[in-house]
Amino acid sequence: MTSPMQVSAVWRTLSTRLVRAGRSDQDDGAADEAHGFVNPPVSRGSTVLFPTLRALRQNGARRYAHELTYGACGTPTQFHLERAIAEIEGGTHTQIVSSGSAACTTPLLAFLGAGGHCLMPDCVYGPTRRFCDTMLQRMGVETTYYEPMLPEAALHALMRPNTQVVMAESPGSHTFEVQDVPMLARVAHEYGAKLILDNTWGLHVFQPFEHGVDVSIQALTKYAGGHADLILGAITVADDNDWQVLRDGALQLGQYASPDDCWLTLRGLRTLGVRLERQSASALEVALWLEARPEVLRVLHPALPTAPGHEFWARDFTGASSLFGVVFRPGFSQAAVDAMVDALGVFGIGESWGGYESLALPSNPTITRTLESSRFGGPAIRLHVGLEDTDELIADLEGGLAVLRAASE
Q: Contact at 8 Å (CB) between 394 and 292?
């Protein structure tokens, strides 16, 4: 397991970078002038005026660069955020889109074509699964769901000549499997496919392009925004050819990001390092407490040795998020688990995560799985640990577990 001293150094390095990333006074390529303000101003607009037709045509030809052409193609505020996210992710280009869901679907549309084949982990985010089973299917793209923890030989057996994309989500939604991303990348590239990763849980603590990922996705709604008050997504690449495909796809789909949400996300980034450090430590403390409880079968926290794929987390990650799962013993009913969640007071009930507030949500029967990965072994919940006092969070869970036991008698 990564030592506390190593983790602390990682967070300090991130905090220093985040203070400077995406600021006008730190960016020679900035498209606007901040006049010395620490935070770049919000730039709203649609029409961009040019002094001559020649200037308009020259600028329009540079749609792959962060150049002002038309408001729907990006504003200076968006460009600042794109540069900051690319730096955090370790890529070269980022496309900001309207939501985390759009960040998942836009690269699928950009890199898949009719008659193509996509491999999707069975633990994938629910809206991405629905998109594959409806929109992609109508477009003539076939999706095969695979066990997130499958061995390399099994992945080879699933690859086809028309496999264009291998998708990964590590850790998985609700089940929290940490995938062997370098292996997935190696096999995908052997067959000429792109590896797309939903890296929202691993923001900063997993560097996707160091492990062979072609396209990395962030739901900026979560940790980057950090305050549960915006909807935004990001798609990052490290290859110029991939950037042209992605940028073309985003523009053709009319993907647009609100300048106000971009500005709020930039503001949220400034405190991301200290928030993640605090929330990560609190989440591990809560997870260890739950692991010792008699009501709990297992805790699905990637930093715990008993979690699925912990060996890959220890090898590839420099830290952990504050989102994890809890599986209760089979003797507790789903109705009892629901009563426990309803009884919580400090933990709110909500489907998002990554903000400053703690949240709880039942994992079944709300999730959809088709393979072995759907079997938790008992009813489960997903917990997101925010910035509240850890002792109060544990006391809240202790009260909830009392309700769980009473509802099962």
A: no
